[in-house]
Amino acid sequence: MFSRVARRAFSTTKVNPYKVTVLGAGGGIGQPLSLLLKLNHKVTDLRLYDLKGAAGVAADLSHIPTNSVVKGFTPDQDKGLHKALENTDVVLIPAGVPRKPGMTRDDLFAINAGIVRDLAAAAAEAAPNAAILVISNPVNSTVPIVAEVLKSKGVYDPHKLFGVTTLDTIRASRFISEVANTDPTQEKVNVVGGHSGITIIPLISQTKHKNLPKDKKDALIHRIQFGGDEVVQAKNGAGSATLSMAQAGAKFANAVLAGLAGEREVIENSYVDSPLYKSDGIEFFASPVTLGVNGVEKIHSIGDISSEEEELLAKCKETLKKNIEKGVAFAKK
């Protein structure tokens, strides 16, 4: 039971209203992501954009009794993309084609790179101060593309550009709990590096399960790195990780909104413009970041790691550097 004073304080607590835009809201990730954002009490103005179908998704979600207005936008409307983005606080970009069996994230590059580039240009013009959360793969390359576009428009703020790697951390929590037979909600794994294959480094040595047998540990690391393949294969070519990715995107968006609202000690892992390995020529890297009213408030080091993880990090850097260079080169064409 709340005391009378506590009840009054609880009932009068105000939540900052935020405008959030989802670019690619009609897709496999976009629809469940939009649903989760509709349920987020921090979001009071939800804009959904896609090439088609956004109005239908918006109408569907608008029937849910939460304190937010939902509107759909398409390119056939007058300035549809601009209106979806205008003065928004947070932009999520899940737009693009999904992975199919046999495809790597790099295979998606030719298509998704162009989509992300054009959406970033629109965001630069209509919402230059927004936090931009990139979900579209390959994140290792699409985030640098967005950065270069924003730089070309004179509005780049490294504190407000994020590659969403949350799916790696939630997978790690789930998978390690299955190996150790524990509660997945109580497992926290620091996953650093990038967001594809061997660039994903789960730091098992920092968990309470660091003494797992080597064969189990190696299998666990591989499953976390290539967990997306499980879903692609299980869906028999009909799609990739959409529902889990939507949950991951909504979780990270909520953390960004919490930071913007001034909540304290909001820390999540994200792929950002980072100083950690710039001396190695790596401009972007995923590690824990503290989120605040200006976006990234602090970038944390990856912490102490084992010799095996040092080897994983070395391999990660080699691939990550190439992925970043590929994105930058595309954006500068």
Distance N to C terminus:
62 Å
Stretches with pLDDT under 50, minimum 5 residues: 1-13
User: Outline, from the CA principal axes?
Assistant: globular
Strand order of the largest sheet: 3-2-1-4-5-6
- The assigned CATH architecture of the largest domain is Alpha-Beta Complex
Based on CA atoms alone, the radius of gyration comes out at 20 Å
By DSSP (H or I, 4+ residues per run), the number of helices equals: 11
SSE arrangement, N to C: HEHEHEHEHEHEHEEHHHEEEH
Query: Taking all residues together, what is the mean pLDDT?
Result: 93
The CATH topology of the largest domain: L-2-Hydroxyisocaproate Dehydrogenase, Chain A, domain 2
CATH class descriptor of the largest domain: Alpha Beta
Structure commentary:
This protein has helices at about 5-10, 30-40, 55-60, 80-85, 110-125, 140-150, 165-180, 215-225, 225-235, 245-260, 305-330, and strands at about 20-25, 45-50, 70-75, 90-95, 130-135, 160-165, 190-195, 200, 265-275, 285-290, 295-300. With about 325 residues, it is an alpha/beta fold. It has two domains: about 15-165, Rossmann fold (3-Layer(aba) Sandwich); about 165-330, L-2-Hydroxyisocaproate Dehydrogenase, Chain A, domain 2, CATH 3.90.110.10. The strands form three sheets. It has a six-stranded parallel β-sheet, sandwiched between helices.
